[in-house]
User: Fold these one by one.
Assistant:
Number 1:
Amino acid sequence: MSNKMHVKLNVNGEDHEFLAEPRELLIYALREKLNLTGPHVGCETSHCGACTVTMNGKSVKSCTVFVAQADGAEITTIEGLGSPGALHVLQEAFKEHHGLQCGFCTPGMITRAAKLLEENPNPTEAEVRFGIAGNICRCTGYQNIVKSILAAATELNAAKEAAQ
Amino acid sequence: MKDDITREERVAGLKGMGCSRKRVEDARFTQGKGNYVDDIKLPGMLHGDFVRSPYAHARIKSINIDAAMALPGVVAVLTAKDLEPLGLHWMPTLAGDKQMVLADGKVLFQGQEVAFVVASDRYVAADAVELVEVDYEELEVLVDPFKSLQSDVVLREDLVAEDGSIPNGAHGPRKHPNHIFTWEVGEEEATNQVIDNAEVVATEEMYYHRTHPCPLETCGSVASMDKVNGKLTLWGTFQAPHVVRTVASILSGIEEHNIRVVSPDIGGGFGNKVGVYPGYVCSIVASIVTGVPVKWVEDRMENLMSTAFARDYWMKGKISATKEGKITGLHCHVTADHGAFDACADPTKFPAGFMNICTGSYDIPVAYLGVDGVYTNKAPGGVSYRCSFRVTEAVYFIERMIEVLAIELNMDPAKLRSINFIKKEQFPYTAALGWEYDSGDYQTAWDKALAAVDYTGLRAEQAQRVEDFKAGKTRKVMGIGLSFFTEIVGAGPVKNCDILGMGMFDSCEIRIHPTGSAVARLGTISQGQGHATTFAQILATEIGLPADSITIEEGDTDTAPYGLGTYGSRSTPVAGAATAMAGRKIRAKAQMIAAYLLEVHDDDVEFDVDRFVVKGAPERFKTMKDIAYAAYHQAIPGLEPGLEAVSYYDPPNMTYPFGAYVCVMDIDVDTGVPEIRRFYALDDCGTRINPMVIEGQIHGGLTEALAVALGQEIAYDDMGNVKTGTLMDFFLPTAWEVPNYETDFTVTPSPHHPIGAKGVGESPHVGGVPCFSNAVQDAFRPFGNRHTNMPHDHWRIWQTANSLGMHG
Ligand code: FES
Ligand code: FES
C-alpha cells in the first residue's frame, strides 16, 4: 500500500515521526514501530483494555484508534509512568498488594488507574470498580487491584497534603 | 563465633515458606517490561496468518492461492498439500487421536485452519488471507452429540475402514463412526442393584456447557530455524515446553538436542496453553521453508473459535440413600462432546480425565462411571480450564446430585453433606472409583464455614424472604449456595499418569554459587502463579539461603531439566516436591562440608535455619554461605568440589486439596440479575507456602467460576456457527460485576508430600462453579426448582422464574 501518511506523536515526552498507512492502529505503531511493548493486545475490539494508553489527557484503547487519528497527540504509556529507580505510586501499590498475577493486563490497568486517580483523587471502592470496568483481568478477580488503587489514592493524597 | 541477630530474625531474613513474600516478578510486569511471545522481535521476522473455514462441515473442492501470492510482501501460502510430503498435514493429539494441521480435503469445524499465509507484516498477511480463494461444498452439520451417534453422516472418514468397519480407537472399541471411546470405572451391576433396591433415589440430567479458558493473552509462537547450525528455536505460549520440544522433534524429524523451546512470560493459561496447535506447527514449517523467523499470534476470535474449549459434558446421574440420608450408591453416565478431533489434554490412560473423582467428598460404598466420547462439528480441545483433568465437571456433578437428593429427602443440604463426609479417621481413604485420598478433615472445615456465615441465621432469613415474596412485599429472592469439594491434583505417579508416553514426574536442578546465592531451574512454567517467588521460598527454608538470593528459572528447555509443565495444579505437588528434594540433597552435602570445617563427625552437626551447628554447642557453626564458599574454595577430602543437585520427583500419589464454600445471593426475579451479597471460601491446600499468593489464586479462581456459572459459554447454532466468538458475547466479568471474597483456611498437610503442600490454583474454580450455581438454584428451590442448567445468565434466570410462575 503506498498511500502512507506522515504521523507525528509525542510519546512519553519524546517526539516521533514516521510514515504509516491510514488504517494502521495506534497499538501497532506503539508496539511495532516505537518498540513500546508495555501496552498489550488482548482483543482488538475495545473490550479488554490491555492496550490502554493516555492520549491527550484521556484513557483510550489504542487497539481501536487509527494512528492517523492520533497524529499530533501526546501519549503516555506504562513506560512513561515511572522508572526503575522511581516507580509510580501505583506501580508500588500493585506490587505491595498483589494486584497482578500474569501481568498481561497490568500495564493497561495501571495506566487507566493513573488517569482515574487524576480525574477522581478520592474514589470510593465502587467508583474504582466502575472506573476500571473497561479493563479486564483474568487472573486476580480484581479484589487486590481495587485494594492497590485505593491504597495508591491514599498515598498520593497524603503526599499532596505533606507538600502543602 | 557469636551471632548478633536472634533465631527469629534469621528465620524472617530467609523469607521462606509460610510468609507473604512480595513477588519478584512484579517489578518487570508493573513497568511494562514483561516479555510475552508477541513482544519477541527477530531480524527479518515474517508473520503468519490463517485462512479459516467459514463452514462447520464441508468438502474442499479447490484452493487457489495465486492472487494471494501476487500481493507484494507475501512470501508463502501453505496448504495441506505442502505439508503432506513432510508428513505434517496431520499431527498426533494428546489424546491418542490425530488432527489436521491444515484442512486435508475437508473441514470439520468453523474456524478450522485451511491455509497459512506468510508475509512481511500482519497487515499484508491479513490482506492475503482475504485473497485466498477456497471452494467449499457444504456437508450436513452435526453439533448435537446424541444426534451424531445416530447419524449416517460420517465426520471422520479417516477412522472408518474401507470395508465400512470401525477400527478400535486409542481407548478401545468404538460403537459408531462418530463414537470415540467408552470409558468405564466401578461396578455397574452392583451399583444398579443398590440403587434399584434403595429407599430413596434421586435422578437428574445436567449439561455442563462448553466454555473456554480465554486467558488475556492469546496463543502464539515464534519459530526460528537456523539452517547453518541446524538448530530450531521455538518461543511460544506453552504450559508444557519440554513436551512441546519432544513433540516438535517427533513431528519434524529434527533431533531433540537441536531444538530449543522457550516459554517466555505467559499472559495467563488456565489450560488454554497445554495443547499443541496448528499455528505452532505452521510457524515451524514456515521458518524451515523460508529460512527466516516466523511469528504467529492468534487474535481473540481465533482463540475462542479454534483453540482449547473446556467442558461440554452431558451428565446423567442416579444417587440412592437411606431415609436418614446415608448415601448408598452413585451412578453417572457422561456423553462427552469432544468436537472434530479428540484433542483432550488428559493423561493417556484417562480419556475422561479424573472424572472418576465424582464420588466427591462423600463415603459412597458403590459407584459406577461410564463416559462416551463423541465427535461433532465443533472445535477440538477439551482442556482442563483451571482444573485438574475434568475435576470441575466431577465436582459440579456430585454437588448438584447432593442438592437434588436433599430435595428428594426433604433435608437440609448442609446436613446431608455432614452425614456423608468421609471421616477424618478414614484417611487414607480408597473411594469406590479407585482413588486413594491422602488426607482430609472435612467436618471441621464444614463446621467452620457454616459458623462463619451463620448458616442457621441465613436459612431463617431465607424463609422470611420466601414469605415476603409470596405476600408481595419483595421481588427479590435469596439463595444460599453451598459446595464442599475435594480436588485431585498433582498428576502424577508415573505408574498411571503419562502424556504421550512420558511419565508425569517433574524436576528441579539447583546450583549454589560460591558467594552463597543460587539458581534453581524447574520443568514447570509460571503463567502468573508466581513460581519465581514461591519456589525460592521452598528452597530458602530447605537450604537456609535467603529467598532473595535465589533465582528461579523455568521454561527454557536448553537450561531447565525435563518436566511435564504447569497445569492441573501440579507445580506445587510435583515440582515443589522436586524442589524440596533437590534442596535436601544440597543440605546433605553441606552437612558433610560443615562437619569437615568444624572438625567433627557428620552426625555431630545439625541443620538450624541457615546453618549447621555442632550438636550441644550452638556457638560452633558454619552458615550455608560459609559452606557454599568452602565448596568451591578448598579441597575437602572425599568430596567433589561444587554444590549442586538435581531431583526428578515421581509422586507416590496425587494430592487432595479440599474446601468449603458458601455464597449468598439476591436475585431480582423480574430482571434475572443476581447480586452476590457474600462469598466465603475456606480452602485447605495443606502446608501454605505464601498466603498472599494463595489468596490471590483464590480470588482469581472464584472469579473464573463466577464467569462460567453465570454466563460464560461457547455456543453454536445448528449450522455450527460459533455464536460467542468475541468478547462482546463471551462473558468475562469486569471489576463491576465481581464481589469481594472472604477467604479462610484449615491446614491438613499431605502425608506423602515432602513439605505437605497440596496445590491450590484450581480449587477455587472447581469448588466455586457449583457454589455459584447452587446459590441460583437454591433461590428458586422454595418455589419448586429442582435443577436448571448453567450458565445462569440474566435471561436464563428470568426464564426459570417465569417457568415457576413467579411473574404473576
Ligand atoms: S486490545 Fe484493545 S481493548 Fe482489548
Ligand atoms: S494479571 Fe493476568 S490478566 Fe490481569
Number 2:
Amino acid sequence: MAPVSRGFRGRRRQGVDASRVPPGQYVVDDFPVLSAGPTPQTGLDDWTFTIGGSLDEERTWSWEQFVALPGETFTVDIHCVTKWSKLGTIWTGVSVDRLLEDVDTAAEFVSAFCDGGYTTNLPLEDVTDGQAWIAYAFDGEPLEAEHGGPARLLVPHLYLWKSAKWVRGLTLLDHDEPGFWETLGYHNRGDPWNEERYWSD
Amino acid sequence: MRPEAARAKTIVVEVPDWPGHLAGQHVDVRLTAEDGYQAERSYSIASAPEDESLALTVERIDDGEVSLYLCDELRAGDELELRGPIGGYFTWQVADGGPLLLLAGGSGVVPLAAMLRHRTARGSRVDTRLLLSAGSWDDLLYRDELGRLGRDGVAVHYTLTRGAPPHWSGWSRRVDAEMLREVGPGPRTQPRVFVCGPTPLVEHVANLLVGLGHDPRLVKTERFGPTGG
Ligand SMILES: Cc1cc2nc3c(=O)[nH]c(=O)nc-3n(C[C@H](O)[C@H](O)[C@H](O)COP(=O)(O)OP(=O)(O)OC[C@H]3O[C@@H](n4cnc5c(N)ncnc54)[C@H](O)[C@@H]3O)c2cc1C
C-alpha cells in the first residue's frame, strides 16, 4: 500500500470514466509529444512502407499506393508511459492485418523501423486481430510530423512508445529484438493495465 | 525545500539505498490521497551523481496538480514516493566527451544542470555551451550558480522572451538560427546536443539544429510539456 502524501487531495477530473484510465495515468485533452530526437521531415515522394524480414517476398508501397489501400477510421484511447492518457482519439489508417493479409510467414515478432532510426519490438500477436494500424490521419486531418506523420504505427492497447512515429516498415522476425526504448530501461511489452513501464515492473 | 527563482522550488530528498544515477535521468514522483487516488509525474534529477543528496527542481504551474502540491504543500520532513532513476538516453557522462551543447527552456534546464554539476564535480574542461530561454530574468533557475560556471570554461547565454531587465546584454527574442550559430559549436565539430523544455521549444530548436546541419542522431531531446504540442 502506497504511503499517503500528507495534505494531498488531488484534482479529480469530472466526467471521466475511471474504468478507461489505467493505473497511474491521468487524462489530458491536448496531445503531448514525446520523442528522443528531432522530428524527421520525410517528403511524401520519398516515403515508402515495407514489410520485410522472414516472409516469402518483401512488400513495398509508395505513399500513393499506401493511402489507396482500404483504410479504416477508428476511435481508441491512448496511454503514454509519461502518465497521460487521451480518451476517444480518432484515427484513420490501414490495419496491420490488411498489410499482412497474404503474407506467408512463421515469424512470431515484429520490429517496427522508422525515420530517425527508432525501432520498437512487438510480438506479432499484439499487432494482429484488429489491434494495430499504420495511421496517417488524426481527427480527420493529415497526421502532423510531431505526432509521427506522415504515418505512425498505432497499437493503442500498449503504451504509446510502441506506436512508433514516422514508421517506414515492419520487419518480421522469428525472435524478439528489443527496440530503442526497450534497450534503455523501458518494459519489453508495455501493457498499461499491468503498469509495465520499466524493466523492473 | 528551498525557493529557486520566482516560480520554482528545489526539493532535496534523502533516499535510503539510492542506487546512483546518471546526469540527465529522472524520477517518477507519486502522490497518494487518503482515499487512494494517485497522481504521478516525472521530475528530472537536478543533482550530480557525485552530490550527497538527491535534488529535484519543480516549476510551479498555476493549475498544475502535482507541481502545485510539491511547491506549496510539501514540507521538510514529509515522505515522498519516488521511483527511479529512469531513462538511459538523455544522459551525459564525462567519459562521453564533447563538445557539449546544452539548450533549454524554462525548467528544461534541470537535467542540464545535473550534467553541468557532474562536469564540475569531475573537473572536466570539455568545451561546453549553454543557452537558456526563459520568460524573464526572475524565472531563470540556478542563475547565480550558472553565472559562476564561466570560470570553469562554460559559455553561458540567455535569452529572455517576455521582457528583459534594464541594461540587459543578453538576447531577448525566441531562439533562432542566428542565435544558435553564435552560441556554437558548429555541426562540423559534432557536438553532443541536449535540448530540453516545453514541447514547442524543443520542436523548434531541434528543427533549427537539423537545419544548421547537426546530425539528428547527436541531438537528444526531452519534452516536458506543456501538453499543447
Ligand atoms: C522526463 C520528464 C522530466 C521532467 N522534469 C521536470 C523537472 O525537472 N521540473 C519540472 O518542473 N517539470 C518537469 N517535468 C514536467 C512534470 O512532469 C509535470 O508535467 C509538470 O510538473 C506539470 O505537472 P502538474 O501535475 O503540476 O500539472 P498538470 O496538472 O499535469 O497540468 C496542468 C496544466 O499545466 C500545463 N502544463 C503541464 N506541464 C507543463 C509544463 N512543463 N510547463 C507549462 N505548463 C504545463 C498542462 O497543459 C495543464 O494545462 C518533466 C516531464 C518529463 C516528461
